[in-house]
Amino acid sequence: AAPPAGATPVTSMSTQELNMTFACLYATINQERYVRIHKVITTDDGRTYTTQPSATFTSTATQDTIDASTGATASSTTSNGSTVSGWVGNGSLSQTITPTGVGTANKGSMASYQAFLVGHSDFTVTETGMTSTDDPTEQWELTDITCVNGEGDDVDVTINKATKSINFAGVGAAHSAAAQMIDCTYTNHSRHAAVSFQNTVATNGGLTGALTFDVDYKITASNKGTLNSDTGTVQFVPNFAYGLTINSVMIGSSQDALDLGTPVSAVGGRYTITGSEPLPANTTREYWVRVNLTRSEAAGVTISNYMCRNIGGTPTSGYGMYADLSVAANRDIDGAANNKACGSVPVHTLVIAKAGHQYTNLQWPEISNEYIDDQGNGLYPLSGSEFAIYDVDPRVNASATPIVSLNSTNVGYSPYYWKTTTLEMGKQYWLVETKAPAGHSLLPQPIPFTLTSRYPDGSGTNVSMGAEMSNPLRWAKAAVQSYNSDFDNNSPNSQGMIVDGHYQASIIVVDTEMPTLPKSGGLGLYPYVALAAALLASALATRRAARRRA
């Protein structure tokens, strides 16, 4: 009830002792309710942020809202134990809220609830802006504002999405303690450019075994976002294994364009692919880089480093043909891991060795590795030979010159074998013996052979002999054994010579002794010729993979 007309309210009264005094007490009872603001962000493609975007809020309150709670103390907690930090006042809800991530589960919230009295709740909360450190260019749209009570029911507030504000003047009394709490959530959606890069090895000439070769890298720039953007500056940054020397680098918009390209120079070890080009929403752009390089096996070079090494699926700098991309800030939404690419350069070693049936003071690198002929007789290392390798059949092209010469100047650790690492995979070669040991015959004709990679990553070496090697009529004077390598040393069938700590692909050339003239009064040459003919008729022209371990 309202006080009578003309009555003057007082805050205290006094009476005389033993006298009666009459007064009227007037009071109002208002329900206390609690409000808290939350923030949710969503994106086009579920992007994540290094520094989470934040939203700024301001609040205003009428004098009635402020005066209604004067002298009263707000509850310290809600019915469910949540903290209440005091009464809503002018500016009391002005603060910055930062979600912990993208999506409803990662919403940001004010630290505590604030209390207000029903019937005296003419206050307004307004979102004033979004701040995104990771991408200042992204555009934010307020997509939803909701206010629900502690039971999940909508609350009678006035929402204005155009002004991004909520007014609480119309909030009525709650029907339960749980319903006293009000949670209001602002949801903003980000529209942005989603630029990313990917670097891959498209063509690897290092797998051919050639000393000088090309490797082509394909760089793809993509914008999967809803805003137009650009590539920014993109640079190609190689860090190849020591011993792989870059001869030239060319850059083009397609792989075919590389054939007509002009070499570019590096600045500080970086090759600029583009200064910046437009990258509209939902488009991709390709760039190609061709590196011509030469591998070396000079002193100090560790050829095992020519193979790529990965840690957690990511190539490691300094191994193989490792190359990274340097891109502009805010231009690589999916991270730098797929900017790194690597191509291996396996070194294919072929060992050429000479063997005979006569015991010598030499031994094979692995003493338990005994090579035998088709009769089970042991073969022994034999020094004194020299060889040449041709890339054309010298029987067909009389002017052919050897591409590799194996002689006393480049013999291996022991004088009966050589190793070469310059032969290409899939190409046919011919091995010619140019000098035989004293008392032995030269190979009667060239040995055709082809090398191929043994394993999917290009490592290891298979040796395939030419078809004519299985013709005993053409190979009656010598036997040739060939062995594949075993790069990981785990195969029980590895039989090539162990050189540099690995079973290597090997070709072992076995010679027979020439007959010697008898001394006077002897039986003459013919018994020896007959015996040699009988033995040679049963000899196997090409024998593969025979080994007996002691």
Automatic annotation (TrEMBL):
Q: Does the keyword Nuclease apply?
A: no
SpaA-like prealbumin fold domain mapped to chain residues? 380-452
Q: Which Gene3D superfamilies match?
A: Immunoglobulins
* Biological process (GO), any one: carbohydrate metabolic process
Keyword Lipoprotein in the entry? The reply is no
Arranged from A to Z, the UniProt key words for this protein are:
Membrane, Transmembrane, Transmembrane helix
Q: Which Pfam families match?
A: SpaA
Span-the-membrane segments of this chain are 525-542
Name this protein carries in UniProt = Prealbumin-like fold domain-containing protein
Please name the source species: Actinomyces bouchesdurhonensis
